[in-house]
Design a protein that fits this description.
single chain; mainly beta; 11 strands; 0% helix; globular
Length: 107
């Protein structure tokens, strides 16, 4: 499957305490996080339940689901604690000036 680099948001839209939720062209939501001086992106939907992770709690490099308290490692998408057991999909991110660009699958 091919992919393309898509502008997701502005660097000012994301802080270490406040992830940003972005709707992609196919209607799927992705979350953008800031950890230190780096940015990361994952699917926004928790793999355990129907919850928006960008509405959860970020602590360092982990995001906690607002519904069940499970969490994921932001950098890898791997579950950090139960009840989350299935990893999140992650997306490569780069910064271009003030823009955060995500490599997202086409179609």
């Amino acid at each position: 499957m091919s992919s393309e680099w898509i502008k997701a948001c502005n660097v000012k839209d994301v802080s270490e305490e406040e992830p940003c939720c972005v709707e992609m062209s196919d209607g799927k939501m992705v979350a953008v996080y800031k950890v230190g001086e780096e940015f990361f992106s994952t699917d926004d939907l928790c793999t355990h339940g129907n919850a928006s992770l960008s509405e959860g709690w970020q602590e360092g490099d982990k995001i906690e689901c607002p519904f069940h308290g499970g969490s994921f490692h932001i950098k890898t998408g791997e579950p950090a604690n139960y009840p989350c057991v299935k990893p999140l999909r992650t997306y490569p991110v780069k910064v271009d000036g003030d823009d955060i660009i995500i490599e997202y699958p086409k179609g």
